[in-house]
């Protein structure tokens, strides 16, 4: 499933456009896709001008379609809550208003997931582009990167045990990629009311490239492969397809999802673009699906580990 679109931003000089595409793939191992994403393609231009362009990606977990339900509820709730809130006033600092509105939308999604699923959960990365500002928030280990001048900057924070071990100096970033507990999270939507949301505000400029992705992508191909594709492929649709193909060629053990946004001063071509904006929840009932291994494990109550647990393979 894929989609591609371009929207004009509020820049005055130069006039910039957001060229974006989203794509998701089940991967080579799992039998259904618990990832979901949403783009602003169906949001009216007037609302986009007032509240910015919102991109949301979620990676569900839980089996028996619980992860699929959780991720679908999350993208729908955040999109609806963010764009229907009345917090936006021209006299206020717009980036602070965006931060408040986006945080409230994520908290609402967390409650909706808890109400709708028992044991299901999801990561989320939600990014708003407004004027020359990027505001992004995440829970879990879905990521957002900014590519600028050949350097890939991660703007999100992983709420994972291996991330904590890296912070504590117990393991390296390279060791984290292959650690046997690299999929264990201490934060996810749907797992409790005490939610830790990581937020970042960043200025954007012409020729920046932004990518939101699930761990099924970044965990399989690494930073350099992402840089190589984003620097050499100008079309975000084609770039997303190439990155997903690379993850599948690497084994594709998990669902794979990417949203790519390129900041340009040119209108995007309309030929070949799709109006589809999300990966929709299947109409198949939850009872009809066999249980599958969750894509991530979650520590109950989301306690941040100060001392690494004694892990066994």
Tally of strands: 14
Per CATH, the class reads: Alpha Beta
Count the helices. How many? 7
Secondary structural class = alpha+beta
Oligomerization: single chain
Basic shape:
globular
Indicate the CATH topology: Phosphatase 2c, domain 1
Note the run of SSEs as H and E: EEEHEHHEEEEEHHEEEHHEE
What does the average pLDDT come to?
A: 82
Strand content: 25-35%
Task: Assign the CATH architecture.
Answer: 4-Layer Sandwich
Main sheet record? 6 strands, antiparallel
Strand numbers in spatial order across the main sheet: 1-2-13-12-8-9
Helix content: 25-40%
Rounded Rg? 18 Å
Overall description:
This protein has 313 residues and is α+β, with helices and mostly antiparallel strands. The chain has one domain: Phosphatase 2c, domain 1 (4-Layer Sandwich). It has helices at residues 45-51, 66-84, 94-116, 161-167, 173-178, 215-232, 236-249; strands spanning 2-8, 17-25, 35-38, 53-61, 121-122, 124-130, 133-139, 143-148, 151-154, 184-185, 198-203, 209-213, 256-264, 297-298. A six-stranded antiparallel beta sheet has the order 1-2-13-12-8-9, covered by helices on one side. Helix 2 runs antiparallel to helix 3 (94-116) and helix 6 packs across helix 7. The longest helix is centred in the middle third of the chain and has 23 residues, at 94-116. The protein is globular and about 45 Å long.
